[in-house]
Design a protein that fits this description.
Mean pLDDT: 94
Helix content: 25-40%
Largest sheet: 11 strands, mixed
Shape: globular
Oligomer: single chain
Order of helices and strands: HHEHEHEHEHEEHEHEHHHHEHHEEH
């Protein structure tokens, strides 16, 4: 097996045992990236020279008998809304096209301290606002499983990079499904941890009450390995809770699902879902039964009826406030104007794309008098009621199954003209974000005709991340973990 096909654990173990070097692993991944990315377009900035220098330094430390860290030599890529010291962080936007931060995001620092090696910054929907990775100024990313289709979004570049074999691990940000949906579309494993599990410091914000740093990999074990180094308190992020984290990899030893209570979400109209995905949900439920779980149907009437509306009212208001700092004065794009107002108008009109401008304007509207009382304040109350609904659910179940998306990956360029219909594609992911819950998008194989990825979403109670990983590991052992896409030697 080629090095670019190995998992995080396999690479870390191989380097530690000196079966191959960190430099070998980095070169193999960079070679795969160089062969495929002209077609896939998953990466914005490649840091190959820097990665090779770091690999050589790690190999020297290992040769001298030092402990170089739990993920020593493991290549990874990161979504281009994470601040990386000295490496440009664009957010896929003209507004930050050439901005290079002077500091690292906490998640980047944690991975660096673990010995992992950054290879590239990956493509995304502009400022993480989208579901297809088509709104980036660097062009759309293509799905490695079918190059005519979108990889999902907004972390589409990260999911595509893992699926294509550029690296065994990627970081994305998940606000309303931005890691779970592209992981489902690209046929890899993606996890949104509980809100507050991982520090958000240094991640360019979209909606602070929802954003969460989220890993993408090709095995559940790799997700657990990533959480081992990422999940820790951070004084730079007051929402990153200072509690003792469990050892996430210990949860993977769960032999079966005996004694577990699994709910299967049935509060939707199956005819409005892709048939293959609906059948996959039922098959996964049966698989859980075979593993010893008590499986029952369940519903979330508030989350289904009001989830999307509540999410977009909350997120857009937050986004409008967060993006106010991009005014052309301190950093980023600056476009001159005759007066100060003209300068603001010119800078923000030319610096932001259509979707970002739409969300900023809607969010600003929601925070004005009248709209605030009639929309934003009620949305916060509904969110609280939804959290109570989740609390009641998890008094009866250990986890529940539902789709990650109502549809299979669609063709590039087929984005709906009506944005509200596009937003409805988040119906199964946004309620989990509103509740601050952990959710894992699990690959369940591929369609017989066409080889498109099949998936389910597994959700647990807040801070039940370790137990959720254990259940996911049992399911993955029964189905097998996904392999890299067969792109061949595309040039």
């Amino acid at each position: 097996m080629r090095l670019c096909e190995l998992t995080v654990k396999e690479i870390a173990d191989g380097i530690r045992a000196k079966r191959f070097s960190a430099e070998d692993a980095v070169k193999a991944c960079l070679s795969r990236m160089g062969t495929c990315d002209e077609t896939v377009n998953a990466c914005i900035t490649v840091t190959g020279d820097r990665a090779l220098e770091r690999a050589k330094a790690i190999d020297a430390r290992i040769a001298s008998g030092e402990d170089a860290g739990p993920l020593a030599g493991v290549p990874y890529v990161v979504k281009d809304n994470f601040c990386t010291r000295g490496v440009r962080t664009t957010c896929g936007s003209k507004m930050l096209e050439n901005w290079a931060p002077t500091y690292d995001a906490t998640a980047i620092r944690c991975l660096d301290e673990s010995g992992a090696i950054m290879l590239a910054k990956t493509n995304l929907d502009e400022f993480a606002m989208g579901s297809s990775t088509e709104t980036s100024i660097f062009g759309p990313t293509r799905n490695p499983r079918d190059l005519d289709r979108v990889p999902g979004g907004s972390s589409g570049g990260s999911a595509a990079a893992v699926a294509a074999g550029y690296a065994p691990l990627a970081l994305g940000s998940d606000t309303g499904g931005s890691v779970r949906q592209p992981s489902a579309f690209c046929g890899v494993q993606g996890m949104k941890p509980s809100y507050g599990q991982i520090s958000r410091f240094g991640v360019v914000g979209y909606a602070s009450s929802l954003d969460q740093v989220s890993p993408i990999a090709r095995s559940v074990e790799d997700l657990a390995c990533a959480l081992e180094v990422l999940a820790r308190p951070d004084p730079n992020d007051t929402t990153c809770d200072a509690y003792g984290r469990p050892k996430f990899t210990d949860a993977l030893s769960l032999p079966d699902l005996k004694g577990k209570r699994i709910g299967v979400f049935e509060g939707f109209e199956s005819e409005k879902m892709d048939k293959d995905l609906y059948e996959t949900l039922q098959k996964t439920a049966n698989l859980c039964k075979d593993a010893g779980a008590a499986v029952e149907p369940m519903d979330l009437p508030l989350a289904v009826r009001y989830g999307v509306a509540t999410y977009y009212v909350t997120a857009l208001a937050d986004a409008s406030s967060k993006l106010a700092c991009f005014d052309g004065m301190r950093y980023g794009t600056h476009v001159k104007g005759e007066h100060l107002f003209d300068m603001y108008t010119n800078t923000r009109t030319q610096g932001f794309g259509e979707e970002v401008r739409r969300r900023i304007i809607l969010g600003a509207c929601l925070l004005t008098e009248g709209f605030y009382q009639n929309y934003y304040a009620p949305a916060l109350k509904v969110r609280t009621k939804m959290i109570e609904e989740f609390d009641d659910l998890f008094s009866r179940f250990d986890a529940y199954l539902l789709p990650a998306s109502p549809s299979m990956p669609y063709k590039i360029g087929m984005k709906e003209e009506d944005p509200t219909r596009l937003y409805l594609g988040d119906i199964f992911t946004v309620p989990i974000s509103l509740g601050g819950l952990p959710g894992i998008s699990l690959n369940m194989g591929f369609t017989p005709n066409g080889g498109l990825p099949l998936s389910v979403q597994l959700v647990g109670p807040r801070y039940g991340d370790a137990e959720l990983l254990g259940i996911a590991a049992v399911i993955e052992r029964a189905t097998g973990r996904p392999q890299i896409a067969s792109l061949g030697e595309v040039a």
